[in-house]
Amino acid sequence: MPKSEEIKAFERFELIVGLLREINDSRGLKLVHELVVKCSEYIQIVVVSEELMGLQRFRKQTDEDVMAEFRRLDILRRIKHNALISQLVIVNRYLFKINSLKNKVPIGGIFSLDPTFLERRDRDKIALWAGFLVNGLRKNDLLVT
After folding, report:
1. CB neighbours of residue 29 within 10 Å
2. Which residues contact 103 (CB under 8 A, 6 or more apart)?
3. Pick among 1.20.1250.20, 1.10.287.800, 3.30.200.40, 2.170.150.20: CATH of 5-139
4. What is the pLDDT at residue 102?
5. Which of 44, 114, 107 is nearest to 79 (CA)?
6. What is d(CA 112, CA 103) in angstroms, rounded to the nearest whole number?
7. In this structure, what DSSP letter does residue 101 have?
8. Better-scored residue on pLDDT, 142 or 109
9. pLDDT per residue over 88-138, tens digit each?
10. I need a labelling partner for 124 at 20 to 30 A (CA). Which of 50, 68, 112, 117 fits?
């Protein structure tokens, strides 16, 4: 049976963290931690947005306050998504600059999906990967919400 994307994302995370711990790289570990925080924050905003949309389906009309909240969440979602993408790029650039990790870091760095998605900055695929990573971390009790 093929591995789920959550398992692949979690295993890639473990590999990268393990490599950074091997060389005692606290800066790299901090960058990875910041990436996990950004992934988690993005997923939380997505969940809140989806819940609001789900609740709205049962109402006959949308009032101005709800529409303002939709707009606010949409802006926040985009900001969090951009921050996640930026941090992912920062982590990977950092990983590939470390001489002692050459030939140890897989193609795609910490990103476990097809690396061409990252090269093209495919927002949908990066968002999916963030969800896979967050779920993998939660299932392994490494992320508490």
Report:
1. 14
2. none
3. 1.10.287.800
4. 86
5. 44
6. 16
7. G
8. 109
9. 999 999 999 999 998 999 999 999 999 999 999 999 999 999 999 999 999
10. 68
9-20: pLDDT as tens digits: 999 999 999 999
Nearest to 135 by CA among 117, 112, 116: 112
Written as one letter, the residue type at 19 is: L
Tokens representing 127 are 């968002």
Based on its alpha-carbon atoms, the radius of gyration of the chain, rounded to whole angstroms, reads 17
Widest Cα–Cα separation across the chain: 61
Among residues 6, 26, 4, the alpha carbon closest in space to that of 17 is found at 26
pLDDT confidence bin for 62, thresholds 50/70/90: low
